Amino acid sequence: MTAPPMAAGPVPASGAAEVRIEGLRKRYGRLEVLRGLDFTVGAGRVTAIVGPNAAGKSTLIKSIIGLVRIPTGQGRILLDGVPIDGGVRYRERIGYMPQAARFPDQLTAREVLALVRGLRPAGTPVDLELIERFDLEPMLDRPIRTLSGGTRQKLNAVVAFLFRPALVILDEPTAGLDPIASGIFKDKVLAAPRLGTTVLLTSHILSEIEELADDIVFLVDGRVIFQGSIPSLLERAQATRLEKAVATLMAGSR
User: CA spacing 20 to 30 A to 94: which of 13, 78, 127, 136?
Assistant: First the structure.
């Protein structure tokens, strides 16, 4: 495989995307996982999806990226006002960083990047800034199976931002990253809106959400019990820290 050239730095995307969720429902047998979700992920903002285990966060993310299909009449997901409706082309505008990436063990990191780039038309601009920031170059020619979990997570981050997405979805993104790498990654997330990328993230680390997010959507049992800015949540809960505000929300939802 041809090795991808290194990029000097990030280049602005064509425009940050807005995601609108309208009346979204999803059921697995008798278990209703999403119960009529309605909220908007603002374009050019960092929005955190928060909630306890089994709140519906993973199903929501999988629905947005098309891994879970929403039956007709069970709500809509719109990207910049256009319903995704089971199509695939909209995914070209989305970057996704799962909590644990699965790359072919026999490939090198450089081959993984070449493989992913081969899925796009020749000449598609890329952003490989994180390779330099993470000092990944010495690791690129090693097989994936020899890389540490933290190094794989760094590669995971590179792939998520690779095509300068209009929307990037980050699922527990700093899991496995050391403090230095975590700081570098957070800088990337904070800069993303300025460069034309909307960020949707999940994290169980509330201090991290407080540091990164503009807005928060709180789910409990498949329902939205709060959507708004973090300052508005703190004011509503009469709290100075997000952890206290979330605890207040949880108590009020019981």
Answer: 136
**CATH number of the domain that residue 187 is part of:** 3.40.50.300
| The pLDDT of residue 194 is above 70 | yes
Per the structure, the complete domain to which residue 57 belongs is given by 19-253
Q: Where are the beta strands (DSSP E) in the chain?
A: 19-28, 31-41, 46-50, 76-79, 82-83, 94-97, 167-171, 198-202, 215-220, 223-229
CA separation, residue 157 to residues 14, 18, 67, 78 (Å): 20, 22, 20, 25
Residues 237, 225: contact at Cβ < 8 Å?
no
Mean pLDDT in the chain?
Answer: 91
Residue 48, Cβ neighbours under 10 Å: how many? 23
CA distances from 185 to 135, 154, 160, 181 (A): 13, 9, 11, 6
CB 249 within 8 A of CB 232: no
The structure tokens listed for 160 are 């998520």
Q: Does 104 fall in a domain?
A: yes
**How is residue 71 annotated by DSSP?**
P
State the pTM of this model. 0.91
- Confidence band of 101 (pLDDT split at 50, 70, 90): confident
DSSP character for 13? -
Number of domains in the chain: 1
Q: Give a yes or no: residue 198 inside a domain.
A: yes
How many whole angstroms separate alpha carbon 100 and alpha carbon 61? 15
Residue type, 17: A
Residue in 63, 238, 254, 92 with CA at minimum distance from that of residue 165 = 92
